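Write out this protein's structure.
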Amino acid sequence: PPERGIQYLIQNGFIEKGNSIETQALNVARFLLSRKGISKQMIGEYVATNHSFNALVLKYFSKEIDLVALSIDSALRKFQTFFRFPGEAQKIERLVDCFANRYIECNSSENNSLMLSRDSVFILSFAIIMLNTDLHNQTNQKSRMTSQQWIQNLRGVFSEGNLNEQFLLDIYQRIKSQEFKTGADHVTQVQKVQS
């Protein structure tokens, strides 16, 4: 499990030992973000695990990612290049929750022309992830979501009221034209070579 790997790296000096739990979590987060070759899948599993230390690592992990002045889908795209979303819905929810907090933090009211609440950013982000899966999943080639279905699905779900249709259409087109991809890592490259 990733937890044992992180513990091993700390014990053997690959990750600097912190003098507090917060410092240790920050050191782990920076290590996960800066080291090339670490499995993006294992990073996603580790930071999304429901343990207090992992949650602290996720908090510091997200604070190291600059999302200022990015559209919500561009920010989410940048955020997820550092890990692969786990398959478990609860873990995805933890990651999206952390993303929503960070997005609002980076795009305060003077920078946020949409003026979305934190909860609305969470809902829209989750919807974008589902749209990406729907549009790019190889097993779902016959019944892909249309742009009108996308807009219809998001009617009446935001506290601010319905979002601008052109704004939603722009997101739809960007997701349709370019799938969310996790950044490359050594593990993925080795698996490709082996297959």
